[in-house]
């Protein structure tokens, strides 16, 4: 892999994680020059990373101003969940007949990691995940769904799903407190899907996965702002930037 590509992917992953966990809130502005200085790199890989984030709908690049973290409107979020339900439902059917035993074991390991995260919070008397715990949970959750999609053996489907999964996770992080009870509920669904896939029961796996996404959709939409609400955080953005973000 070209050095710039490797560095840009690392920067992309770090900034994406800061957005999906809510560390970078809607309306926050990132400067390509400042990021390059922060990472000790040239502006080329930083620019590549920011363009990838913009392509996925996580940020908006505004000429003469900077790169701004987007708010996700309710209508867009609803559409993304509809796409996820349809495409992941199709993917799990194909994956159930193709997935290897090693991949099934990897899914099991991811479920164990999520359980461990929930148990870690409960062990110290917390009923919600902290920022670090949320980041680890979201990473494992993303890996679980991504592995199922990859196991379907359809490269174009992988590309189509990248944006919908990342943006869905971004809003999941912004629901506010993330109760451990919901983490366990989501992981119980993961384990049921995995059990159906081990039995090679494609129809059952599909129904379970679609129900899981519907539940996530309902929880996310219940916390979503109205369609016409644009939350740009506390930053006093110029009007031309607000127009680009609307």
Automatic annotation (TrEMBL):
Domain HTH gntR-type positions: 5-72
Protein origin, superkingdom: Bacteria
Annotated GO MF terms: DNA binding; DNA-binding transcription factor activity
Gene3D superfamilies, per database record: GntR ligand-binding domain-like, Winged helix-like DNA-binding domain superfamily/Winged helix DNA-binding domain
Pfam families membership: FCD, GntR
Entries under InterPro entries matching the protein: GntR_C, TF_FadR/GntR_C, Tscrpt_reg_HTH_GntR, WH-like_DNA-bd_sf, WH_DNA-bd_sf
PROSITE patterns: HTH_GNTR
Alphabetic keyword roster: DNA-binding, Transcription, Transcription regulation
PANTHER family per record: TRANSCRIPTIONAL REGULATOR, GNTR FAMILY, TRANSCRIPTIONAL REGULATORY PROTEIN
Name the UniProt record assigns to this protein: HTH-type transcriptional repressor CsiR
Organism listed in the record: Posidoniimonas corsicana
């Amino acid at each position: 892999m070209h050095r710039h590509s490797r560095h840009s992917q690392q920067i992309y992953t770090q900034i994406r994680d800061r957005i999906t966990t809510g560390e970078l809130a809607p309306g926050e502005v990132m400067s390509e020059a400042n990021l390059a200085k922060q990472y000790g790199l040239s502006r080329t890989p930083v620019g590549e990373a920011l363009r990838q984030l913009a392509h996925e709908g996580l940020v908006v690049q505004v000429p003469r101003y900077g790169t701004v973290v987007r708010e996700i409107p309710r209508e867009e979020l609803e559409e993304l969940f509809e796409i996820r339900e349809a495409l992941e439902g199709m993917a799990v059917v194909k994956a159930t007949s193709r997935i290897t035993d090693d991949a099934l074991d990897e899914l099991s390991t991811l479920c164990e990691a999520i359980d461990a995260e929930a148990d870690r919070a409960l062990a110290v008397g917390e009923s919600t995940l902290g920022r670090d715990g949320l980041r680890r949970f979201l990473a494992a959750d993303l890996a679980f769904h991504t592995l199922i999609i990859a196991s379907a053996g359809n490269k174009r489907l992988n590309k189509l799903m990248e944006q919908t999964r990342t943006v869905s996770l971004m809003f999941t992080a912004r629901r506010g407190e993330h109760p451990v009870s919901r983490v366990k509920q989501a992981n119980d669904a993961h384990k049921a899907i995995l059990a159906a896939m081990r039995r090679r029961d494609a129809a059952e796996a599909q129904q379970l996965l679609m129900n899981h996404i519907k539940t996530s959709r309902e929880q996310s939409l219940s916390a979503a702002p109205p369609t016409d609400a644009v939350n740009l955080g506390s930053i006093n953005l110029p009007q031309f930037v607000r127009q680009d973000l609307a």
